[in-house]
């Protein structure tokens, strides 16, 4: 299989001489750092395309690199696989978007993202006695979901600086902006809240605060963003955007 050389971007962060960098990148490649003012961007030069049978392993390696930095400081994670055609393309990208990255990293410097997804339990037999009965059953389930999501807002605000709720397939995902170090307090608080019988709940995090990035940082396009995985290393299709959004289950 013929390969070309591409630039794989991992994440952006603010300069701090105390930070340690990961020893190797995806596919045992060298880790490099692009400098722009206070901004630093972690990248590797990789052969593309990857062997399809190795994509899951590449995703795990990507995840490891990002979380090596995230364990120490705030990062703006790029989607896997966000590839630049060359070093100049990456440099131009950072020159255009660097101020926005720096502003977000300063604003979120001591913040992590915690998430709670609430969703319908595996349903029993739907009521098919009539069309109206089925619709009423479905509406009742959705009402329970909406009411519980709203019910969660107040107690979560006690341990979160900001709460956002997004619709997902068969449920809602709740994103919470939490001070680094308060992750366990968040988990304890949310587990204290009883879940209605028709719903289930999953908690995850901490993750980089991608949901709380400004729109200008979330949306800049890079040359190519291939269908491989999200910023947490889970393989799934994705849009042509540079920055990862949030963990998916």
SS-based structural class? alpha+beta
Rounded mean pLDDT is 84
Q: Unreliable segments (pLDDT under 50, ≥5 consecutive)?
A: 223-241, 245-249
* Overall number of structural domains: 2
- Count the DSSP helices: 5
Major sheet: size, sense and barrel closure?
A: 6 strands, antiparallel
N to C succession of SSEs: EEEHEEHEHEEHEHE
The gyration radius over C-alpha positions equals 20 Å
From the N-terminal CA to the C-terminal CA, the straight-line distance is: 33 Å
Strand count: 10
Strand composition percent: 25-35%
Shape: globular
Helix content: 25-40%
Could you provide a short overview of the structure?
By secondary structure, the protein is α+β, with helices and mostly antiparallel strands. It is built from 5 helices and 10 strands; from the N terminus they run βββαββαβαββαβαβ. The two termini are 33 Å apart.
């Amino acid at each position: 299989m013929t390969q070309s050389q591409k630039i794989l971007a991992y994440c952006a962060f603010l300069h701090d001489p105390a930070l340690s960098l990961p020893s190797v990148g995806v596919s045992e490649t060298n880790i490099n750092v692009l400098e722009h003012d206070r901004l630093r961007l972690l990248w590797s030069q990789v052969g593309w395309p990857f062997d399809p049978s190795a994509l899951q392993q590449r995703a795990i390696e990507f995840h490891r690199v990002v979380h090596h930095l995230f364990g120490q400081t705030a990062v703006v994670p790029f989607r896997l696989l966000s590839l630049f055609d060359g070093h100049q393309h990456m440099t131009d990208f950072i020159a255009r978007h660097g101020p926005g990255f720096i502003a977000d990293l300063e604003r979120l410097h001591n913040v992590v993202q915690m998430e709670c997804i609430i969703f319908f339990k595996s349903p029993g037999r739907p009521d098919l006695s009539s069309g109206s009965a089925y619709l009423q059953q479905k509406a009742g389930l959705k009402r329970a979901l909406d009411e519980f999501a709203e019910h969660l807002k107040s107690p979560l605000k006690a341990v979160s600086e900001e709460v956002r709720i997004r619709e997902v397939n068969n449920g809602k995902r709740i994103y919470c902006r939490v001070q680094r170090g308060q992750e366990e307090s968040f988990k304890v608080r949310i587990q204290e809240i009883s879940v209605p019988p028709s719903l289930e709940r999953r908690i995850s995090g901490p993750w980089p605060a991608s949901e709380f990035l400004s729109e200008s940082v979330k949306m800049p396009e890079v040359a190519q963003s291939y269908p491989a995985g999200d910023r947490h290393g889970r393989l799934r299709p994705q849009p042509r955007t540079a920055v990862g959004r949030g963990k998916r289950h």
